[in-house]
Amino acid sequence: MKITWLGHSCFLIETGNMKILTDPYNSSTGYKASFPEVDLVLVSHEHGDHNSVKNVKAFKKVLKEGTEEFDGVKITAIPFFHDNAQGAKRGKISLFRIEAEDMIVAFLSDLGTLLTEKELEALGQPNVIFLPVGGFFTIGPDEAWKVVNQLKPNIAIPMHYKTKYASFFLKIVLRNLDAFVKDHPYEQLDLLEVTAQTLPEPTKLVALNFNPMV
What we know:
There is one protein chain. By secondary structure, the chain is α/β, with parallel strands linked by helices. The chain is 14% helix and 31% strand. It has helices spanning 117-123, 141-151, 168-173, 177-181; strands at residues 2-5, 11-15, 18-22, 40-42, 61-63, 67-70, 73-81, 92-100, 103-107, 128-132, 155-159, 187-189, 192-193, 204-208. Helix 1 links the parallel strand 9 and strand 10 (128-132).
């Protein structure tokens, strides 16, 4: 499995013959909103920085809810909340559980609060997680570590934080990667390649470099 970060909460996941894109964004993020041709687009909620499917060059299907299987890859959308008030402030989101290559990948979207037993059971024991760490719209750095401890993945990949590429507004409201990493060791990569046989233990923190594909 190959994983590339295209900025904000957008990742390209390549598994077997499948190319999966998560939460394509619009230009309000400050990143170049242009995405490669893929098989499947996952949209976690209807905010412009997460649902801009029109900016994807080409795709076969968009998945927002339910459970579907594509070429041996099973994807389950798990309903949850964008805030700590059961969606009253920012609405609902879908978390995504992706089963491929004998691994479980969990995309945690704009997670707004800690996971409950219901979501933990639905997610199972994920090997790789993508989690927001920038705060303001989502959980912040301290809560993000609590989520890491809840899920205990092999690999944790931060997303949705301030970078030099982000818009002026996002640079004001979001925390940066350092606020999450603190004194924890981590590996910085352009591309993560992982198999079920190479999963590290205990949890390894991997920060991916922004990699525009188009």
